[in-house]
Design brief:
heterodimer; A: 169 residues; alpha+beta; seven-stranded mixed beta sheet; 7 strands; globular; B: 416 residues; Naphthalene 1,2-dioxygenase Alpha Subunit, Chain A, domain 1; 25% strand
Chain lengths: 169, 416
């Protein structure tokens, strides 16, 4: 269940809806259900993994990932393509997330800003890798549930060299 | 001995896998060449420094108090501890964290604890060159700094070493009407599971894209089907050009193993109001036009650097092991150029040079499989026979002439 800041109350049904979106977001990636995963995002969504700790600018500073829906779609099409040679040996991932915390509700947009720590283990071919960091979600409230407007992933080693990063964290 | 391992049409696989060859390459190829260590904009003030590893040696690129760039060995003259621990910073003095030996920004020993504890003529003394941090010759070309660790008698100065390949750096600097560039937007770094030469041998390889990049080409085409695709998609889709198009890309092979390729991923630059005029005023019409329209792709400064002037990308290659190579890349921002160019170039870096690039994984996989195949089976491989004898000035991206050129340089370094 999402941890609330002090002095903020929201209906439990909204909390449950947000919790469900966050759960599915993680599980669809673990299962490789990328189309269902992308359907959780808004049309104007953004997937961003900064290159530098605390990076606040994605335009004049490079990023590990900085993709709108169109580019996210292109990545999905590439990693699910039969000629994606780098994935010929298969890829399996397992993400586990810590408790989510609602940091704030954006007064202007009504978006929920939710954070949670995560770890991901990736098995690709003969190699196993570990990733860890903080996920920050901007959730756009709808009538019944939420759409993910932005997912930001701050890896603890974002500024270090990496072997190719192919799937979303 | 090593030179015999390489013949046209039959390269001994151990050239890519042997630890002995790798160790010799570090000392004979990398230590004897000019290696790119950074751009002067990265150390703008006296005392500014960056750590960098060249030919396996831990170095410090630092701006001395007289304004000149220096490269020092990051090893205390006392017990050998690394004096600098941060990746970058600013320091008036460099003090070893172990016993406090302290050095000036040119490496001169300035202070050591209880010097009376040493006796004899060869005792450590402040100012004695024998007790300085070891320093290496640095030369710059348009503010790109290169270092050479060994000084063989016949080694050429940097400008001569670069020769015609220096044009790529000129094209970058000439994109600023002041000639001033600055590294901006962070460093992207990727580790490849292959020998360093496997990476260089792909720089102008126009035959691989349809096969290696089939998945990203297909994804990009699907993304582009909707109409006017954004640049990111067009950059990825560019690999899907017909093979004949790659045969039209001119590849030039220069002395010392350097090379470049022109014509790939052209952009229409120079339409911004006032920009072309500013360049023309600074450099003249011909040179300004060249800076804006001449596109050198993956210009190679053998053995350790590569540039892509149009997108203002500089890359450095660091061999980590026979089967591991680090490639770092930086975006250069040209003073006085449109901001939109810089922002585009950052997006280009994200798309092409980030570890998350859609193009990179299948390249990296092809390199890894070359490495895997060679490690598992001794014997020669046919490495670079395609389009023999085209002449150094008439080569294309469908020829392996540039690989032969790299091996000529390799042999000249390794046979000494």
């Amino acid at each position: 269940m999402i941890v609330l800041p002090e002095n903020l109350e929201v209906p439990s049904t909204r909390l449950e809806a947000a919790d469900r979106v966050l759960h599915l977001e993680c599980e669809y990636l673990n299962l490789g259900s990328y189309d269902q995963w992308l359907a959780l995002f808004s049309e104007d969504c953004l997937y961003w993994a900064p290159l530098a700790p605390g990076q606040d600018d994605a335009k004049s500073h490079s990023s590990l990932f900085h993709e709108n829906r169109e580019l996210m779609r292109m990545r999905i099409d590439r990693i699910t393509h039969e000629a994606a040679h780098s994935l010929a040996g298969g890829i399996r991932t397992s993400r586990t997330a810590g408790p989510a915390a609602l940091r704030e509700i954006d007064e202007e947009s009504g978006d929920w800003i939710v954070e949670r720590r995560f770890q991901m283990t990736e098995r690709q071919g003969e190699r196993t890798r570990l990733f860890a960091g903080l996920c920050t979600y901007r959730l756009r409230p709808g009538r019944e549930s939420f759409l993910i407007r932005e997912k930001r992933v701050d890896l603890i080693d974002c500024d270090q060299p990496h072997e190719p990063l192919e799937v979303f964290f | 001995m090593f030179g015999e391992m390489v013949r046209v049409g039959a390269v001994d696989g151990r050239v890519y896998t042997s630890r002995e060859v790798f160790a010799a390459e570090i000392e004979r190829v990398f230590a004897r060449c000019w290696n790119y260590v950074g751009h002067l904009s990265e150390i703008p003030q006296p005392g500014d420094y960056r750590r960098v590893t060249v030919a396996g040696r831990p170095l410090i690129l630092i701006r001395h108090e007289d304004g000149t760039p220096r490269v020092l060995l990051n090893r205390c003259a006392h017990r050998g501890a690394a004096v600098v621990g941060r990746d970058c910073g600013r320091a008036r003095r460099l003090r070893c964290p172990y016993h406090g030996w302290t050095y000036a920004t040119d490496g001169a020993l300035k202070q050591l604890p209880l010097p009376g504890g040493y006796k004899g003529d060869d005792a450590p003394r402040c100012g004695d060159p024998a007790w300085s941090l070891e320093s290496y010759p640095v030369e710059t070309y348009r503010d790109f700094a290169f270092v050479r660790l060994e000084e063989p008698e016949k080694a050429p100065p940097l400008a001569e070493f670069l020769g015609p390949a220096g044009e790529a750096l000129d094209l970058m600097a000439d994109r600023s009407p002041t000639g001033r560039l600055s590294v901006a937007g962070g460093r992207l770094a990727i580790v490849l599971r292959c020998n360093w030469k496997v990476y260089l041998e792909n720089l102008h390889d126009g035959l691989h894209p349809p096969h290696v990049h089939e998945s990203s080409i297909s994804a990009a085409r699907a993304a582009a089907a909707g109409g006017q695709p954004p640049e990111e998609i067009r950059w990825v889709a560019a690999n899907g050009q017909p093979l004949a198009t790659f045969g039209e890309l001119e590849v030039r092979c220069h002395p010392h193993g350097h090379s470049d390729m022109s014509g790939f991923r052209k952009e229409a630059d120079g339409r911004d109001a006032g920009y072309r005029e500013a360049l023309e005023e600074a450099w003249g019409a011909k040179r300004a036009d060249r800076a804006l329209t001449r596109n050198l792709h993956n210009a190679c400064f053998y053995p350790g650097a590569s540039a892509h002037p149009q997108y203002m990308q500089m890359r450095r290659l660091t061999p980590l092991a026979p089967n591991r190579t680090l490639v770092e890349s930086w975006t250069l921002k040209a003073e006085g150029a449109p901001e939109s160019h810089f922002l585009r170039n950052v997006r280009y870096a994200n798309t092409i040079h980030s570890p998350s690039s859609l193009v990179k994984p299948d390249d990296a996989e092809a390199y890894r499989r070359v490495q895997q195949g060679l490690e598992g089976s001794p014997g020669p491989v046919s490495q670079h026979r395609r389009d023999e004898n085209p002449g150094p000035d008439t080569s294309t991206a469908l020829s392996e002439e540039y690989v032969r050129s790299q091996y000529l340089a390799w042999q000249s370094y390794m046979e000494d």
